[in-house]
Input
Amino acid sequence: DKVLAPHPGARWHQYTPVTRDTERLGMEAAFGRPLSVRYDLSRAEVILSLDSDFLTSGPGSLHYARDFAARRRAEDGSMNRLYMIESSPTNTGTLADHRLPVRASGVGSVAAALAAELGVPGAADQDSSSDVDRAAWIAAVAKDLAANRGRCAIIPGDYASSEVHVLAHALNAWLENVGSTVTLAEPVEEQPENETESLRQLVQDMAAGEVDLLLILGCNPAYEAPSDLDFRNAMTEVANRVHLGLYDDETAEYCHWHIPEAHYLESWGDSRSFDGSVCLTQPLIEPLYGGKTASEVLSLLSVDGERSCLSLLTDHWSQNFEPESFDSTWRKWLHAGFVTGQEAAAVTVTLTEGAVALACQRTAERGGRDSSLELIFRPDSTIYDGTFNNNGWLQECPKPITKLTWDNAALVGPALAQREGLVNEQVIELMVGERSLEVPVWVLPGHPGGCMTLHLGYGRSRVGRVGTGTGFNAYQLRESQAPWVATDVRIQKTDRTHALASTQLHSNIELESRESEKRHLVRVGTLELFEHEPDFAQHMGHNPSPELSMFPPVEYNGNAWGMSVDLNACTGCNACVIACQAENNIPIVGKEMVAMGREMHWIRIDRYFQGDLDEPHVHHQPVMCMHCEKAPCEIVCPVQATVHSDEGLNDMVYNRCVGTRYCSNNCPYKVRRFNFFKYNDTETPVLKMLRNPDVTVRTRGVMEKCTYCVQRINHGRIEAKKQGREIRDGEIKTACQQVCPTEAIVFGNINDAEAKVTQLKASPLNYNILAELGTTPRTSYLAKLRNPNHDLEKARDEGV
Output
């Protein structure tokens, strides 16, 4: 406002490629004005997701993941139930008790049929009459939702159509969820608007020569704007173009001036959380390269003149305080990290008359079940919309389900692949209207037929050290009228291939065995099975007698460190992988080395499919060093570089290691990593600031692995010793444990009978992988449980 006041001819536009326009349009259609919505999953017995990956993406996902996982502990006496309708496989879908894969255009049809089954006024069935199996699915879900009126939640996807959002709001209202598990509140955004239309208006003004000065703040529209708007050519009609950004990117190339932007960790600022809470941004260091924040740049054009971001921030929040009282309040806010009392106020609204009928009508008009091929666009699970393309940690982090690194691909289901004769890494030409893009194929079990998925963020032309990025630019096919799904897509096969680096089969544990010796690495059961047979997981493997071991027994009298991983809570989000990499100075190796199986991550998350290829169950299993009490790696090391501590840790002495790799060959869990080359850059000064000074930076020729964050153990031991006491339970957290949003990882002293980790290991669900080898791992797992609907479970063959 302060910028626009002295410049009446100025216009403010806001745009992000991961736009929430469909959510806004759905709110306006349902309630006549923009609102925000949040969910209380701690109170939800039944959850229905309408193409929403609410556990790992979108606003509030961390909060939702914590609440959801807290209701998946069978020991508490009950579990929630999750139904998933999705057009592209997601992490949330892997935790679903029942999953229905449909085309993107078919999500609305299922929602309309569900509303009709429940008797929502104005709803018309568009789906179930022509599909017996789907009709049975809808009927069973409707019955379950109706039985949990006021204790269920319907969550529409961020990228679902506005009609799906209308139907979700109608369902929540009809099931009396609003005010219980669902809260409608004032908008979180200061200025909610249709961002795509705002960008379209800007492009028209630029092309007409009506813009004299274009100031672009922290975004990259020359790369990420919809292809049909032709933003890049339109901006060349502007006489003066200025770009504020972290990088000299595609937009900076077309601007006269580029201002280095201060990173948020170098800045003072504020932002709103998903519930409207105001969080304060505080700098860790001064800007390394003299960067400026968006607020500092805007202040130059405002009535205030040049100001620092700190003075702008404090002036804003001190308006209602006396100077003396504000200082103490400000310090409290900084200590807490947020400004109190700023949550978005809940509102009471009613559905617009005719909104449901109109949504059903438009859903029917979309023809969600015709034969045309659809192309689904989604932000990438690691580099998002391309914002994090320069982040090597995220580029090399395997995608949760495909396990691809450094690339995107056209994801297709087995049915479509068989029909079109497509195989992994085969390059195809995708054609949408007059636009085309060549991209490799990746066949993904569980992907619905009749559609394919292509992730955004790749194919950059100005990124990284070499100036060009990896992958393929999905924005070339994305249009403003259909930002999330393109219809009438055509495929042209080529005779070329493109190598993709997937880590799924790297360091995998050998699964081939006789039927009588089947190795259940991931043990899965149902809530009903657990209630009738609590120790079912113990019967899925063999635990040898300790007396049969050739190792002499060892008594651990002090601390005995151990870990428990709850597979029922793991979403496969990869947070532990990146936290471990940041904590332990783990380098990246690049796509070529990853393709050779030489990635250095100390934690990998194995992904398993179970059952039918078209509708499989998907399971995640984090695997790190097991810290075996009887470790096979230790007895083969010729220089004693890998040894056992008196607290049960399998230690690595880096300066002893001569790189024989005998230990890796002898490790049945395949969790050791060898740095064949000097992956760590020890020369660039700024990269030295990146690393944790408490952990050694390894050079080439050294074996490394998970250490249970021994540096944190030592720090906790020193602090306890200084205070003359024992280490308390929970005082030491490993990096993976600390970052896990669902608290799936628990670490502690197993000699402490009261410790949480000890209690978890006493659970009948607790088991060790490859326990039959007699290695006695300190890391164990809790078996995964499902809470299926009996009506649906009877009709499904789960496979083996």
Remarks:
- The chain is about 25% helix and 20% strand.
- Residues 626 and 779 are 5 Å apart (CA to CA).
